[in-house]
């Protein structure tokens, strides 16, 4: 462990750009060396580990690294984004001997993780979703995230073949860029099949608010939507409510097919197991961990749930073809001309934004065809 | 508590105990709450042990871990104190009105709005005034808003006959909605993309830690507030009047006590303490007002106040005990693989047993001071 720490400290001096190095380059050191390096890794979740959603996706990733030789996993769930998470991180460091921490909730980044990273320069912190900036944030911190918008685009394709009313619905937490991008991707995917489709969106205002999520789902179905997806912390309520009402469902975060049975079309899932495995291999191999790690479907950061029985042969074909295009790496969801739902041109003709385009990180508009408002 | 003595039957050898009698009388008076509270805690822990045995884990290991995580080292003590700090103020928000016979459970609303008010009030002054002055401005704004919020519930109770428990709870929901409206609207820092927040305070304007400790100044402020509240209730004539009104409103009115003003005043003061807790969250922990302010401190404060029997001084140890239970909750999750809900079961069990033990006051002759007065 001392060896690992000194390697990390030395690596601060290196001026090499952070990039995707640790995320995508597999450990070059043999597994024999890795097995000897004991490493205690801490995972912190904002909600329950079995929420069929955001936290479960991370816990499944943690379960993958738990099986790796030399790794001791410590986990804590339901940790609020307050001084509690700072103390939980310190407790893992002081009492469990953790040297690599993954605080997984967005709100843990600033100020909590940054404060702990400044206080414990020998410990490595990697955060899910934060926008790590070189020069501004310490080198023992970093962030990783997946481009899941293309997964929602594929959800939209599956939804387009299932809808009869040409109306699909989206239950969203907050009108922030990550969520808005998913809503737009879902509708654009559906419109790539049938341009007459519209998507109604309802914002609940909170990441986890079961009653409102159920109400929103019912309201969407009452208004004629027959395929529902969502972006809330735990899609369980939305999925069960929608399937119970006879609507089709596209999943999000984790695989919810068990909750909707044959009403489940597909779902955009995180594949954190791959991401965490790479981090652990790098740490055990004494390599520098990436500070800004991003990837999408083709990088193995995101995956799709297996297509359900309700997806038609035609839909399956289009889905597989688009997926193949995405895996080839030349695909853009946001190809101009695109108007927002107030009539303004937001992506000009001839522009195709790749999934890592910086403009997408601050998206504040809903595209034409989305019924709803961000304010 | 005021059951009259009728225990002439029990007599003591007058000669030997005569000089000890005042001491014993004093002891009997003071011992009752201590013995009953401790007994309740022990009984609660015993019941909880049965629960732990029932799920096949060792209560001994669990209590050892609770001690290690809550109080077993200087780090653990500071961890507990950090978590206790906000509870001191939110418990006062319940305890003060309780002495007037009111059950206020909406302190959470005053916390979040106090935080928003503090962040908003700070904006024009950041950079132009010294930090201490800024804190005074922020605290004043937060306390005013908190006082209005909870004072309004008191006002409704006295002048409109609205149940204060329900109105304060509903006001808390309104407060959280208002907070979201503010931090996602007019007060939003445009740079806070995926977590809408107010503009963060610069580092030099953060409240910082108590020298030599890893606990922020909120702990000192909370303890001072508890002591002041105790003086107010137990020593001053206002407190005396409030206790009379709490015991019997009609009697207080017949005595000519200004019951309406007492109720609005005490609920207002209670709300100002909860508002102050919100200000401290912003100035000492978060650095900005955002959704993380609604972390449930207002609700945990209810538990603390009831366990402390609404005695402001007793709030201090009870808050530290609960802080310790929460601090050790993480270690229990990590070491024993128990879910986070275990700590909730413990808190719930303790709460019920302690409330049940309230019925024992005045039932044990040994605590009756009159027993020790006469022979």
Q: Can you lay out the helices and strands and say which pair or pack?
A:
The complex is a heterodimer of chains A (375) and B (375).
Chain A: H1 2-13, H2 21-24, H3 31-36, E1 39-44, H4 54-66, E2 71-76, H5 83-96, E3 100-103, H6 109-119, E4 124-128, E5 141-146, H7 149-162, E6 167-172, H8 177-191, E7 198-203, H9 210-222, E8 227-231, H10 236-244, E9 248-253, H11 257-260, E10 264-270, H12 272-284, E11 292-295, E12 302-304, H13 313-328, E13 334-335, E14 338-339, E15 345-347, E16 352-353, E17 370-371
Parallel strand pairs in A: 1-2, 1-3, 3-4, 4-5, 5-11, 6-7, 6-8, 7-17, 8-9, 9-10
Antiparallel strand pairs in A: 10-12, 13-16, 14-15
Chain B: H1 14-17, H2 21-54, H3 59-70, H4 74-99, H5 107-122, H6 131-160, H7 164-184, H8 218-234, H9 237-247, H10 249-254, H11 259-286, H12 297-307, H13 312-336, H14 341-357, H15 369-373
Helix pairs in contact in B: 2-14, 3-13, 4-8, 4-11, 4-12, 4-13, 5-6, 5-7, 5-11, 5-12, 6-7, 6-11, 8-9, 8-13, 9-11, 12-13
Distance between the termini of chain B: 22 Å
SSE class of chain A: alpha/beta
Count of distinct structural domains of chain B:
1
- Major sheet of chain A, described briefly? 7 strands, mixed
Radius of gyration of chain A, in angstroms, nearest whole number: 21 Å
Question: Which chain pair has the greatest contact?
Answer: A-B, 38 and 36 residues
The tally of strands of chain B reads: 0
Give the helix level of chain B as a range of percent. Answer: over 70%
């Amino acid at each position: 462990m001392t060896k690992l720490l000194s390697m990390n400290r030395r690596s601060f001096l290196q001026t090499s750009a952070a990039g995707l190095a640790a995320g995508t380059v597999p450990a070059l050191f043999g597994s024999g060396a890795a097995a000897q390096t004991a490493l205690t890794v801490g995972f912190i979740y904002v909600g329950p580990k079995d929420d069929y959603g955001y936290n479960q996706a991370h816990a499944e990733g943690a379960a993958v690294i738990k099986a790796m030789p030399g790794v001791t996993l410590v986990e804590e769930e339901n940790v609020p984004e307050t001084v509690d998470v700072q103390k939980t991180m310190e407790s893992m460091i002081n009492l469990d001997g953790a040297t690599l921490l993954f605080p997984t909730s967005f709100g843990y980044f600033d100020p909590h993780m940054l404060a702990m990273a400044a206080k414990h320069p020998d410990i490595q912190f990697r955060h899910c979703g934060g926008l790590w900036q070189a020069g501004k944030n310490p080198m023992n911190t970093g962030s990783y995230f997946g481009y899941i918008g293309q997964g929602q685009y594929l959800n939209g394709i599956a939804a387009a073949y299932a809808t009869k009313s040409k109306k699909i619905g989206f239950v969203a937490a907050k009108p922030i860029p990550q969520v808005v991008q998913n809503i737009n991707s879902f509708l654009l995917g559906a419109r790539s099949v049938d341009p007459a489709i519209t998507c109604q969106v309802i914002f609940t205002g909170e990441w986890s608010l079961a009653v409102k999520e159920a109400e929103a789902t019912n309201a969407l179905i009452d208004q004629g939507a027959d395929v529902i997806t969502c972006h809330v912390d735990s899609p369980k309520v939305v999925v069960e409510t929608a399937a119970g009402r006879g609507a089709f469902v596209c999943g999000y975060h984790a695989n919810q097919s068990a909750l909707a049975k044959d009403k489940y079309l597909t779902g955009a899932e995180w594949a954190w197991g791959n991401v965490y495995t790479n981090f652990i291999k790098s740490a055990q191999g004494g390599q520098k961990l990436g500070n800004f790690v991003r990837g999408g479907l083709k990088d193995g950061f995101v995956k799709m749930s297996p297509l359900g029985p309700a997806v038609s042969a035609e839909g399956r074909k289009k889905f597989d073809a688009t997926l193949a295009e995405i895996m080839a790496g030349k695909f853009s969801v946001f190809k101009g001309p695109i108007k927002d739902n107030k009539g303004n041109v937001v992506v000009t003709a001839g522009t195709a934004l790749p999934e890592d385009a910086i403009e997408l990180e601050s998206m504040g508009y809903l595209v034409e065809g989305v019924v709803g408002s961000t304010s | 508590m005021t059951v009259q003595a009728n225990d002439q039957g029990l007599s003591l050898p007058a000669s030997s105990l005569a000089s000890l009698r005042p001491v014993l009388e004093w002891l009997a008076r003071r011992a009752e709450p201590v013995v009953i509270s401790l007994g309740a805690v022990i009984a609660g822990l015993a019941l909880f042990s049965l629960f732990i045995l029932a799920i096949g884990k060792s209560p001994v290991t669990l209590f050892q871990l609770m001690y290690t995580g809550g109080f077993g080292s200087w780090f653990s003590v500071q961890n507990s104190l950090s978590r206790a700090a906000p509870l001191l103020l939110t418990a006062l928000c319940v305890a003060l009105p309780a002495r007037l016979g009111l059950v206020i459970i909406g302190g959470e609303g005053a916390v979040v709005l106090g935080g928003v008010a503090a962040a908003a009030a700070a904006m024009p002054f950041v950079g132009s005034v010294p930090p201490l002055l800024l804190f005074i401005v922020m605290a004043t704004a937060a306390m005013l808003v908190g006082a209005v919020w909870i004072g309004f519930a008191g006002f409704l109770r006295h002048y409109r006959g609205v149940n204060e428990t329900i109105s304060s709870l509903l006001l808390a929901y309104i407060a959280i909605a208002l907070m979201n409206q503010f931090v996602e609207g007019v007060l939003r820092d445009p740079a806070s993309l995926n977590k809408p927040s107010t503009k963060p305070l610069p580092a030099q304007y953060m409240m910082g830690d108590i020298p030599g400790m890893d606990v922020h100044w909120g702990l000192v402020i909370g303890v001072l507030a508890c002591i002041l509240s105790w003086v107010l209730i137990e020593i001053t004539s206002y407190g005396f009047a409030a206790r009379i009104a709490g015991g019997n409103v009609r009697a207080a009115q017949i005595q000519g006590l200004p019951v309406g003003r007492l109720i609005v005043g005490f609920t207002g003061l209670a709300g100002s303490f909860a508002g102050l807790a919100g200000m401290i969250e912003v100035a000492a922990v978060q650095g900005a007002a955002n959704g993380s302010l609604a972390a449930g401190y207002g609700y945990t404060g209810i538990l603390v106040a009831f366990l402390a029997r609404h005695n402001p001084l007793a709030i201090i140890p009870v808050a530290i005990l609960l802080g310790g239970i929460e601090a050790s909750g993480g270690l229990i999750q990590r070491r024993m693989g128990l879910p986070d809900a275990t700590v909730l079961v413990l808190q719930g069990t303790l709460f019920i047993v302690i409330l049940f033990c309230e019925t024992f006051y005045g039932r044990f002759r040994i605590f009756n001071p009159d027993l020790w007065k006469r022979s």
